[in-house]
Protein 1
Amino acid sequence: MNIKNLLYVLFIYNTASAHNIKTSDCSYDQLIQQDKVYWCLMDKYQQSILALKNEEISAEKRLKKYDTEGARGCNEDGTIDYEPYIHIARITFPELHRSFIIYREKQCKYASQSDGARPGYRSSISSLYCKTSMNLSQIQWIKNTI
């Protein structure tokens, strides 16, 4: 592996780890202007998207490995006992991602509009807070479940 690939891997790892993403860094207390809060949150949102994608790829690999190499028992006739739920989870995992994206967009749109009309970037800021926190909770759910 050459140095360019090594630096790229380190960059992706540092930007795609969910534990480094903190929306509290973008609070109004630290950043007075709305545009700075907006762009800070946009950066956190992009990081959460990368971290979510990274965690989904890792979960798909775990599901595939367990589906093909998992320890399964044997039936009475000597055939391998196949657990269909793992296979079904592996097949339906991409649909889970699509469903989550649709749910996240609708939930955050509702949440940002339920506060009423607000001046400036406030509805966009509310939406970015929502999307980032939902991405982080989805990452945690995937880590805990799969």
Note: The chain has a mean pLDDT of 80.
Protein 2
Amino acid sequence: MVSIQQFVQNSGSAFVCLGLSSLAWLGWTDPLPAIAQLSPPVDANTLQNPASQRLLQMFSTDIQATVAACAERGKVNLAAGAGSDGAVICGDGSTQSDISYASYLDTLSNILAASGLVGFRTVVEADPRVTPEMLVTVFSSPEGTATFYNAIQSVIVQSQLLSANAEDSTALLTNEVVGKLRDNLRSPADLEGLLGTTEQYVQVVDNFCTAPGMSVDQAQQETPGLTPIQLYAICVQESGMADEILQLVN
């Protein structure tokens, strides 16, 4: 299996990149119009910063393996759908039988969405001009959703998580992420409660975000009341990624 560190170096980390793109908005002088000017700072050094490495190492080996599926076989071809056994199909046409298509798409989009939400939350805390209500309004409009769609699609392409010419796969993943962001920004309370209660946060850090980690189902049993996206968001927050990128953009 490809190590998660090698995956970051060779394929990039779309979920770290999405967090970066979110945090890049801290430089807004006029938040809403500036969204359209978003150009995420994605490069090898950023992908390998200490916080992103900590984040990647927090997850269980099963989650790490899912994220790194097909990393040395042309990456996952999402547009091809699932193989006959339900597994992901790699860019070279082979299948990786130990990783299901549904699990790959769900896991990756959850981590991407969680990273974006943590980025949004950091923006709100750092800049009083940006409010949860503002983000909810943007995601409730077709124009706002389209703007975020383009930004997220750009981040995924630059991260090299999928093949450079995999336009259909990129569109599929982008749609999934945008849908989850929209579902988790239906009201200001969604962003405010993203990281759960203090007790829930500590439990998730101890059980889900600390090696050897556990599955999402196990984590939800240990800490009821949290969604998979909230679990991943807590790990993103705990990794310190938001704080590190905040220093870069200030």
Note: The first strand starts at residue 87 and ends at 89.
Protein 3
Amino acid sequence: MIFSTLSKATLAVVATLLLTQSVESHSYVDCVDWRFTKASKNPKDISWSDKNGACFGYARRFPLKAKPFAKLDSDDPNRHYQQKHSKDNKSENELACSNGKVGEEPGADETVSNPVEGAYTGMDKRKRKYGQMTQKFVGDTLCMRWPAKNHAVPSEKERMVFIGLMKYDGKKIYTQKDYLNKGKDKPVQNEVVPYKNCSDKGKDTDIWPCGACFKLNENMVPGVYSGQWRWQLNSNEFYTSCFDIRVKAKDGNATEPVAPPTKEDPKEDPKEDPKEDPKEDPKEKPKKDKKKCKKGKKGKKCRKAQKDDKGN
């Protein structure tokens, strides 16, 4: 009887733990700008662990020094945002970025800030500083990292991650349709990467570090871009993380370039520049044509006159 009671209690605890793991095992972007400290010739051998790199850019209002890697899905509020399920299995009419209020799991507030830096310079309610904003150059490689959360094991189907970048204008709040290239505003860049690209696969499949890299387009206009990381767990179950990137020109200029002056610009017309007009320079004297003097006594006066001119 005692054994039966203990068995029931044990089963209840195990069931609770499994349920908790199932509820909390949802992923999010841990780092937007991950940079490796050790290079690897074979991409398959690359390690996404903290020992092999560091983070230089985060999602909006991402708390630093909060919890160990992969544990922010149990934070308050939880880091992951699960969009509301939809009948069309696309959730394209849902909020692209969490506002902390709606969705199957609202998650943390990742709405865009104005100015955009506001989402990276403050602190949360626990006085934890927010991570810095990503800054890259045109054509740079961007690597993003996320925790496996038990969904990268061989028995699970590979689900892709969709990454979209939109030009930030300081006012527009982009919708999920925009990021899916179905709205009025079109993404500047879209990438599709595998979710299960993980390394350091120990016994705890929840904390496997995963990630992917891609190059920013060479023709990107320098400025700020709003970004979304979107992962599909099941047919109608999507999770998102949102971020911003300041893209600089290769010469270091982070602002949009100014068009060069045209040929019609009066400043470029030498006729309009007084320094270029010889008539406007009082110091310049008209040159006299040099005459040839005759030889002998007849050309003596001519040669003397030329000599006097040189002396002047």
Note: Residues 8-24, 255-278 have pLDDT under 50 and may be disordered.
Protein 4
Amino acid sequence: MERDCLIAHGAAANLHERLFTLSDSSQMHICGKCKNMANVIQRSVQGGKVRGLYCRFCESVEDIVKVDVYMVQSYYARSSSAWAYLLSLTLRFASV
């Protein structure tokens, strides 16, 4: 029984490594408040300009999370926003 569990876990880890980590892994920033994509931009603040993460929809710099996604998913989200389609991305945190 333990052998089967180790085999199953090893296969899952190997598939994740081959199909995600080594293939087309990408990172994306998502705002936790409005569930939209956040960007790294240079914005004006009192006393000058600052470059960093910023959500243009809710105009916030707080609660922005970096997630690992497939490159195709990141490309699709950016293309959809260029076409004026708004994607709402749900965040679920895994308990370890």
Note: The chain has one domain: 26-94.
